[in-house]
Structure formats: structure tokens, C-alpha cells
Request: fold
Amino acid sequence: MNFKKKIAGVLLATMCAALFAGCGGDTKSADTASGKKVQIEYWHVASESFGGQTVKELVKDFNEKHPDIEVVEKYNPDMYKGLTQNLQAAIASGKNPDVVQMGWSFLNYAAENLKYQDINQSFESAKDPNFLKDNFLPNVLALAQTDDGKQIGVPYSISVPVLYYNPEIFKAAGLDPANPPKTWDEVKAAAKQIKDNTGNMGFFMQEYADNWTQQAIIESNGGSMLKKENGKTLAGFDTPEAAEAYQLLADMVQEGTGLHATNEEGFQAYLSGKLGMVCTTIGKRANFEKSAKFEVMAAPFPKFEGKELKVPAGGNFLMIFSNDDAKKAAAVEFIKYLESPEALLKWSTGTGYLPPRKGVENDPNGFKKLVDTNKNVQVALSLMPNLVPWASFPGANGLQAEQLLIDARDIILSGKESAAQALHETAEKINSLM
Amino acid sequence: MEKNKWHAFLFLLPSIFFFVVFSYWPLLQNLYLSFFSWNMVSPNMTFVGIENYTAVLGSEELIKILANTVVFVAIMLVLNFVLPYLFSFVLGHLIERGKGFYRSTLFMPATLSLAVASILFLWIYNPLAGPLSIVLSWFDLESPRWFKENWLVIFAICTIIGWKVFGYNLIVMLAAMLAVPKEMIEAAKLENASNWQIFKQIIVPMTSSTAIYVFTITVVFGLQYVLVPVNMLTQGGPDQGSSNLVYIIYQYAFVFFQTGKSAAFAIITMICYIAFLLFRTKYLEKKVYYEN
Reply:
């Protein structure tokens, strides 16, 4: 009996110990500034397979060059969603990080809900008030501005949608790989020619759980995703221009020249040489080039004849959350380092993102090496003047609105309803949520 | 007697502790959340009463989601309950050679994770480059868009679950089949009973306790397994064609950040589960034969 009791006691104790072991030991203080050394925290979303090594390299290099500053990098899992959650908790407890990567589609959320440092003022107090104006294109700077023009961060990582194609399929279909389609009418014709002459599928536009490339085609046809009415943001895509652009995609699917499938299926089909053209992010470049058995070639995102091309920017920008002046100055210094041509080259090579600064592509120490050796990067860079902000629906139902638009994509591409009808119904649903 | 009770309670304590901490407390917490509007990060939670429930019960999507869930369960019952049942009878009593081979081959997929299975099947079902589309092209058939058509998508996802779960259920059923006394079957054979008669008159009643276990886990676990392939491959699409009671909870909480509605869906799901288990205990359990 006694023995059994002991066993039970021991078991219980081990269970409790195991349970509570996970709860302690997280009290590493950030304020161990020895002497004058300023310690700042850099929060990012770069996992090991997507630039994580590069972040560590950059931070190490910066710390060696700046003996008075120590940057500590912290990886946040689950992309910007996860980072924002952690950030909110950190700010609530007063343990602000200093420099933070924020996703473009979280811009409205960050501006409305987080207490950040004014970027222009931070650079002014660091005695470098013209850094942003001198180094960035105005349309790129505007990406990190709120609706009322307030600069809340510094653009850092940029991706654009491009048109990848398979030159071997092009040749087999009698198309010229050196002269890929430039307009959507040409894309449609090329897709048909590929289908007719080779039997392969012609075209696929990415179907991620967002509407990024769909925004690009709608806005390039003169449509828009959002509109403002009496200070309220509403769905702006219930227009003939938006419907016409979307219908073009649906028609390709109906004719059997366009593919409607999950994103990964589309990419698999392209990489295994069964699909002529794929419209997706330049961020897939390195992965495509490595996985395909043919030479992966990219063309700029196609236009509509006589209309201005508009491509939404993907990626992230940097925000400052420091709560004292010494840290703020160190944060500015660190951002200037991250935005230097050498650092941007490393970052771009490690991730596939484009550099946001103007002139970097011609810098012999920087991006020029990559640009000169890779034509696909040149193509992506040529789209920089056409960048527009990635539209995001504001408010508590914003993410649900995004999903409704994804559902509409399935309805349109499967031919269940015409683009005009589906976009109209979706706009009404979204407006009732806003 | 009193002392014994005290001891019994002591031994139950660890599991009661874990049940309370990890099952009942979250359940209460979930009930609490279902009366608030909250986005999981904001410091302000707004009390909205039963608004979340009225919104969920009055929404168009609820019908679609309930219908999808029923179809999911029906297909999974065929793939993971009826088929293993028949296979285990064949393996246990009808064939003599290659038993070990079948047993291990059919069980193997159960050891792989569902995430791996999802990626595998994504490739198999690829409408342009997948092996299935190549086989179909031999017969001049065009591969359907498995993950982009209503209903078909549910079938495709169920086959992924089936691939993983089939083997385990088969082994469990087989154990029950083998526990049926051989003499009984030999005797029946002497009486010239057909295989079907043996199955119906001897096997079904003798294995009913295991069968009801497999039936229950097929429904209860099956619906939870569905989350992995749906989240990885379709995100509930096309146009909510593969959404179901379990995925919608996840979607509202961790994609839309609307914990209130998510919690309301969770409570509704729990009520469905309770109804299922009551039905099971009340009607099915009575017909079950327990040896001891």
C-alpha cells in the first residue's frame, strides 16, 4: 500500500513538474546595456529557408561596424500576422522592439492600431532629413504612406507580379521566345496558339489566398479595388473595367486555354513543362529557376492596349517603435545600413525581393552584378515605376472581405457566373460588411 | 469502503486535472468568447450578447457548411468504415496466402503525416501533369479539376484522409475478426452456410463492439483530420465548396481574426457532436455485443 502511494506521489509530482517546466525561464532582459552600448531589437519574418541566414549575416556585419550599437534580431513565425500579434503584446507591456518588418497589406492596420515613431521626424533628429526623398522614387515612398499621406515606414522589400513562360513550349507552338506577349490580347492569342499547336495548357494566373495579381489586372484596365464614399471605404470593383479584365481570364478557362487550379497545381504543371505561361510573383524566381528543367524566362506583367500598367507591391517596409532617443538614433542608423546598396544586394540574393532604392541597380558594388547576370531580375526592376499600393480592406471585417473576393474568383473562373454579375454580388456583400 | 473511494479518487486525480485544464476550461473559455467581438490582439473586447449566434445561424453559409460536413462524413464512412470492415473479413477468414504482406502494405500509409499525404495527392490529382490525368488520357478522358469543382473536391479530400486512416481501421477490425472463434465458422461451413451468411449471422454480431468503436472514430477523428488537407490545399474553396464545421472555426479565428463568430461555430459544432454521441449511445450501443 505504502509503496503504491509513493508511486502515485512520484507520478503526480513529475506530471506537475513537466507541466510547469514550460512556463518559466523567459525572463531574458533586454536592458543589459553595459557602458554606453545601445542595444536595439530587430523583428523580422525571415525563416531559415527564406532569408533567415541573410538577416543574421547582415546583423553580424552591422554590429562589427558599429561598436556602440548592438542589434539583436528576433524571428517571428507565421509572417506578418504572427509578428503583429507579438508586437501588440510587446507594446502593451512596454518592451517595444526598435526596427520591425511590416507587410504592405498590414499598413492600414498598423497605422490605426500601433504606436509607432514618425519616420520623417526620426530621420530629422538623426540629422539626415533628406534620406528618404533623395534615395527613393516618390511612388515607392508612397507605398508606406497612409491614405492621408503620412509616412509610417521606409520601403524595404518589394516584389512584383511578372509573366513567366516556357521558351521550349513557345518555340514548339511557333511563338518567338524573344518576343513574349506584352498585352492581354496577345496573352490570350498566345495561349490559344499553344493549346492548338502543342496540346499544352496556355496560361495560369496564381490562385493564392489573396487577390494580388487580380488587383494588378483589374487596375491595369482602369478599374480599382477600393473606393471612398463619405469617408467610408467601399468595394470599388463593381465596374465594367474590372469585369472586363476578370472576364478575359474566365474566357481563357472556358476556351480550355487557361488553367483554373490550386496554386501549387499550376506551378507543378508549369515546372513539369505542361503549361506555357504563369503569372505570379518575382519572389518565385529563384525557386522556379532551380526546379525547372527548361530555362525559365520572365516578361513584364502584361498591359491593356493604351492603358497605364499598375502592379501592386508585395513585400514589406520598416517601422520604428523605439521608446527612447538613443535607441531611436540607433534604429535610424540600422535602417540606413539595411538600405545600403551592399546590404540590399545580400538581402535580394537571399530572398528574391527587389531593392526599393533608386539607382541601386546601377551601383557596381551592389545590385548591378545580379542584374547583369539575370535577365528576369531586369524585367522585374523595369516594373518599379508602375508600383501601386496593395489594396487592403480596412476594419474588423477586412480579412473576411478579402475572402469573399477569393470566393468570387472561383465563381468567375469556373464559369458559374459572369464576371460582371459575380463582382456585383461580391461588392454588395462586402459593402454590407464595411 | 470509504478509504477505497479516497484512493480511487487519488488515482483519478491526475487525469481529472488534465481534463479540467486542457478540455473543460478551454470549453468554458470558448463559451465566454462566443459572447464577445474580439480580434485576438486588441485590448478591447466588446460584449455583444448572442449577436454572434444570430449572425452565424442566420448566415447563408451555414447551410452549405452543414451540407458539406454531412457529405464529408458519408464518404468517410464508406472509405474508412465500410471498406475496412469488408477487407478485414476477407483478410481474416477468406484468404490464406499473403496475409502479412497485405496487412503491412495497407497499414504503412497510417504512419505518414497528413501533410505529406496532402502534398502527395496534390501531385496525383494534378489536372495537367499528375499520374491520374495521364491514366485518364489513355482513355481519351480529360482530368477534372479535382480541387476546384464542388462536391468533387470533398471526394478528393476524403481519399486523402482515407489513404491515411484506412490501414489503421483495418488492423483494428482485423483484430476483432480474428477474435471470432474459428470453430464457430468451421461449424457454419459444415452446415453449408455461404460466406455472406457467415458474415451476416456470425461476424457482424461478434465484432460489433469493435465496429462501433471504428464507426465512432471515423466520424469524430475524421472530421478533425479534414482540417489539414483543407487548410493546405483549398482553404475551404472553391467558393466554400470544401469548407466544413471544423475548418470554418479555424478560418474565422485564425484567418479572419473574428474569435466571437469562431467560438459560436465551435459551440454549434460541439452540439452536433453531442447529438451524434447521444444517438450512438441510445440506438447503436444497444445492439452491440460485449464479450465481458
